[in-house]
Amino acid sequence: MKATRQKYLATAKRVVLKVGSAVLTAAEGLNQPLIQRLVGEIAALRDKRQFILVSSGAIAAGLRKLGMKERPSGMPQQQAVAAAGQSILMYTYEEAFAAHGLKVAQILLTHEDLESRKRFLNARNTLGNLVEWGVVPIINENDTVATDELKFGDNDNLAALICNLVDADLLLILTDIDGLYDRDPRQDPEARRIPLVKTDDPLLQKAPGRRAGVLGRGGMVTKMQAVKKAAAAGIATVIANGLTPGILDAVFKAREVGTFFVPQAQKLKSRQYWLAYNVTPQGAILVDAGARQALVRHHKSLLPAGIVEVFGGFRKGAPVHLVDPEGKPFAMGLSNYSARDINRIKGRQSQEIAQSLGHKDYDEVIHRDNLVIFPEI
Fold first, then answer.
1. Whole-angstrom Cα distance, residue 138 to residue 127?
2. Burial class (CB in 10 A: 0-12, 13-18, 19+), 151
3. How far apart are CA 33 and CA 23, in angstroms?
4. How far, in Å, CA of 156 to CA of 283, rounded?
5. Which SS3 state, helix, strand or coil, does residue 268 take?
6. Is residue 164 classed as helix, strand or coil in its secondary structure?
7. Any bridge partners for residue 334, and if so which?
8. What stretch of H or E contains 98?
9. How far is CA 201 from CA 10, 175, 198, 231, in A?
């Protein structure tokens, strides 16, 4: 088990470190001593590692600044609190890293920044330059302008997407429990920590601990979603307790702390990953069992003959989910035809497209080059 950890950790140069609200906050707001300790641990490892920090804490800092005792329920109010707290969060990090001679840079992202291929590449280049210059990027969701439809939803999933963005070698998630347990340790004192999980383990499908913290939006479920996204990019994940002093040193010495998640062997290419996880589907296409098998097993393109139904009013070029006969999305692709046109050619042979539409731009509704099958993990 230690050998498995060492295999991945020994070569993990670029690390996305996600720190949750449960670690960063105290009753009076930000936990300043803990932040200083954690930054010191990062600084001690900087000779061999590059860190990209995904940090929660803006809302906790904002509540303290505004004299509010509870997180508001409405999105506009939460966005306002986050805006008030973001400057305090960054100032805290600025001072903590400066004590070790390190500079930081703030990056605020929305889902649109990673969904647009152009903006995705711009963000990749910016982060790449900062890391190469020795600057520690500190990333958070841009809560002030994000909408419900375009939110990452939690920093766990944001961190996983950042891993692909920066070509990371490891995702390290620090929370307030010691890792993944077979049962919820907050409710069951007999719960057992699981030190290592492989991608085919059913625990990834039914993780315990759905309850989120008072200030945080995530729970163990969102962390398992992040693990799966990182695994699809060939990136290992460690979930560990950020309240434990020396936790970063222990992780990189391959000690049995937290839970180590082994990634899948066949990783998605960067563009495939972007299409699978960064893009918001604008509709869905239901295919029959034969079409699903041709797409998944034989790596074929989607032809109109295999289409059963179309959902949504999407345009040509839109990203859409492909759904199997059981109603489960199993792929994402860019459609060569609009929903209206697909409804007219569904179930037909490719040579009948021109007869049905009066024109034929493509034989395929979705070409294999613009299609990604979701990893079965």
1. 10
2. middle
3. 11
4. 26
5. coil
6. helix
7. 319
8. helix 75-98
9. 24, 22, 5, 12
320/330 Cα distance (integer angstroms): 11
Q: For 163, how many CA atoms within 13 A lie in the half-sphere containing its CB?
A: 35
Give the span between the Cα atoms of 291 and 309, in whole angstroms: 13
Closest CA to 53 of 142, 158, 204: 158
Q: Which two tokens stand for residue 266?
A: 């066949």
The DSSP line for 309-356 is: EEES-PPTT-EEEEE-TTS-EEEEEE-SS-HHHHHHHTTS-GGGHHHH
Phi and psi at residue 137, to the nearest 5°: -70, 135
Q: How far apart are CA 212 and CA 22, in angstroms?
A: 10
- pTM for this predicted structure: 0.85
| Element spanning 39, H or E | helix 32-44
- In tens digits, the chain (377 residues) has pLDDT values of 788 898 899 999 999 999 988 899 887 778 999 999 999 999 999 999 999 999 988 888 888 888 887 888 777 788 888 888 889 999 999 999 999 999 999 999 888 888 888 898 899 999 999 999 999 999 988 766 655 544 555 789 899 999 989 999 999 999 999 999 887 787 888 889 999 998 667 665 555 444 444 334 446 788 888 998 999 899 999 999 999 999 999 999 999 999 999 998 788 887 888 888 888 899 999 999 999 999 999 999 999 999 999 999 999 999 999 999 999 999 999 999 999 999 999 999 999 999 999 989 899 999 999 999 987 65
What count of other Cβ atoms lies within 10 Å of the Cβ of residue 211? 11
- Dihedral (CA of 349, 294, 231, 22) sign: positive
In order of their start, the domains of the chain are 2-272 (3.40.1160.10), 281-373 (2.30.130.10)
